[in-house]
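Batch manifest, entry 17 of 40.
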Amino acid sequence: MNHHYFLQYLDEHEYSNQISASIYPQLPRLLQECLNKMETPQERELFLLGSLGVLSGMMPNVQGSYFGKALYPNLYCFVIGKYGTGKGGLLWARNLGNTVHEQLLQKAEELHKDHSKQLADYNRKLKEFDKGKLAEPPVEPTPPAHLKLFIPANTTKTAVMQLLKENEGRGIIFETEGDTLADMLRQDYGNFSDILRKAYHHEPLSYFRRSNNEDVDITLPALSVVLSGTYDQLLRLIPTAENGLFSRFCFYLLDSYTSFRDPFATVHDDKEQFFTYAGGEYAKLYDRLMARSEPLQFSLTPEQQKQFLNLFIEYKDGVVEMVDSELDGSVNRMGVICFRLAMILSTLRAFEYNQLDAPKLVCTDKDFNIAKELAAVLLHYTLEVYDHIKQQNISRNNTTITPEQGEEIKQMVEEGYSLRNIARKVLGDAGLHNKVNRYKKNVLKK
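Output type: structure tokens
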């Protein structure tokens, strides 16, 4: 059945594809203050999703038990919008991690300076050893770690693995152009989509470092991802709903503004100063969690567990019956997302009330209800994105190349145009580049 029936089902259960304004006053105080700086309802929603994504990567030593395994707060978020639509809320969300990122970079610089001194001492002692002045050869100092919170997507698979290893398995990939990550996923030397799939459930990662001739293991990766881009960019990253990354992402659909916004209106002209302050406050949260000797154990109450189970049984039955059985994995992972949202909100709440030193963190009903509502909204968007991807795949499979288009493709191939440019110009969809490539190989070469 069409997914709109299930959307109606969700609406009847008081959920829609918009976040209720009533939840904002219930959020942890500092997050409320950040949201008050946003100027439109859409910017507020966008900031909320982006900030939860960023903050999910700033909560070391927080974990819950899900199917008997440790689960950390990390989220994968993708904001979809047309070119030129306002993504300002997402960029402000990144600011929440800037202080931690800068602190880690500064620490890395200090380690680099110390390493330079140690290396100079090593080289001096090595010369003395060569001259017979030392009985034992000196030990070469270990290179310093490249410490950072934000991991660049425009890098190789090995580099991502190395950065995760040197940052105790943690990091945030934050990119406002989905192409940056999608381009790397398509390259043999940078294809780390398997890292994203495994890291989502904290499965061990390993790679071979040729420079040191050693195997490197990351036992508990905890990676967060926040991306934005167009539908075309999304399809380059996640070409089909069957792709393992689809069910791991929270999606948000960004509408275009109906009118041109005044770029000179300064409703909140203290934004830069405020978000510098907010980033400093969340750095305190990060530092306090890093200082813990044991993880902060998060859990739902028995009654919340019962509600959680009943809710997602309803969701899964509805999705399988009314939409498509292949989406059952998405509902399963939406349960993971809901649990993680409750964990993030509870940690922020504990920070607000100075309770981060407690051994356990039990979710309040307030945070549990907020997490359920956010999960319902995100499920709406998942179904809409699923519908779009399916329609695009059907359209692409049904697209035939006419003789006139074939002549145009032939001419552009001879003139050296890229496959994507040819597909965009001739077929109206850059995503059809594989069809152009097949035509080039099977028809033009003959």
